[in-house]
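ESCALATION

Customer reports they have been waiting on this structure for their group meeting. Please prioritize. Original submission:
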Amino acid sequence: MDFVHCYFSLYLCLLVATIFVITPSSSAIQFVDAETQARIDKVCFQMEEYGFCNGVFHEGLTLPSADFRRLAQLTIERASSNASSTHSFVVQLLAQATEEPLKNVLIACENAYTLVMQSFNKAVVDFYYNDYDSMVRDERAAPKAQASCEVTMKTPPAPPVDPLVDRNREMRILIAMAIVTGHELVPGSP
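Update from on-call: job pushed to the front of the queue and completed.
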């Protein structure tokens, strides 16, 4: 009897441990409904990195269902936040820079991310006024500004290691996500 009881207790402990390991601990939604995933796929299959795009949506959603308006809101807020934190990072790097070529590159990137932030700050306001045409128009200024930072980082005399490579990649994808989801809200948009 003790032998059976011991195995049953072990089995029960393993079952409980498995449930704790599998159960997500964050408030992010792990599974979305089919319609929401179809919307996410429509956006993310157009991105250079599907996994990053899909992850942004799944991390940001708090309910299993979302329309394009919610997806657009999520991308605008994430792009705005990312632009702001990248701008702060550039300012921090600039304060620590000692070499003139690096300072010049960082000044160009600081200016670029200022424009990206302004673009998304305007887009956020337009979004909340349901002025989606203006929102997309505002967002369309961001890719050129962001790309200018990337190009400057690669133009000689470029720094030996680009400290913004990952941040620029993420920003580029977030901008594209915001524009694509924004187009879904504009009547008559392809």
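Sent to customer with the following note: The domain at 29-183 is CATH 1.20.140.40 (Butyryl-CoA Dehydrogenase, subunit A; domain 3).
Escalation resolved.
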